[in-house]
Amino acid sequence: MPKKKEKVDLSRKYSLPEGVFNDEFLKQLHTEEDVERFMNDLHAQLYECLLQGEMDVHLGYKKNDPAGNNSGNSRNGSYPKTIQTIHGEHEIEVPRDRNGTFEPLAVPRHAHRGFSLEKLVISLYAKGMSVSDIEEEMRDIYQVNLSSSAISVITNKVTQAAIEWQNRPLESQYLIVWMDGIVFKVRDGSKVINKTVYLAVGLDRTGHKQVLGMWVGKSESAAFWMSVLTDLNARGVEDILITCTDNLNGFTETIRSVFPQAATQVCVVH
Fold first, then answer.
1. Can you tell me whether residue 231 is helix, strand or coil?
2. CB 226 within 8 A of CB 254
3. What is the C-alpha separation between 3 and 182, in angstroms, rounded?
4. 63-93 per-position pLDDT tens digit
5. CA dist 22 → 7, 12, 30 (Å)
6. How many whole angstroms separate alpha carbon 194 and alpha carbon 257?
């Protein structure tokens, strides 16, 4: 006999006030339209909560907090706005401040589509925030309780997509391939250090440029470029007519060891 599935307490699961999803309330949802209408209302309220949270951060104090007295800026009511989301069209109230400096992120000014929670998480992740930092940011600013595991699922999608892009097959021949290293300052633990992004851009036989790949190393060297060229060859590149590079010591010899027929050209800047 199959084990009876345990009933989920949605109020507890989503950190809502106790009893929000009680049996009496759920009995009011008789049809699919009732459920859809409820989801629309709930989605609109979520956006309004996010906007109020953003206003708190913008002003530096919460609504009705005495800390806002004589602060130089304050809330100035709200205005209605119709937005399109995955749950359809609905009207929300967007708060405004007296100085007119509030620029909402959840529903940007002049935009009529609400933001994607997934895109926000990815944006914060791309800026170097850890999973725990994103979790705290979402809770403190947007009043959204998103677990570390849920954030990891979202960010892992980006990581997987990046891996697939980096390992995708390439064409057998490129007319020109430009190769250079760009140095960026990145935070590594408690230190800010330099790291080099090795970049290869190829011109294909149809005249279109495409980024063949990006690789990260400590500093630019011919030895690391050897691993880059070997990777290009393993992904399907058999011939490069012309390579354009800087005057890095040993770079030309490294290219010819993998693509012996390639003509090498030093870029005009170097």
1. helix
2. yes
3. 58
4. 888 887 888 899 999 999 887 766 667 788 8
5. 12, 11, 15
6. 29
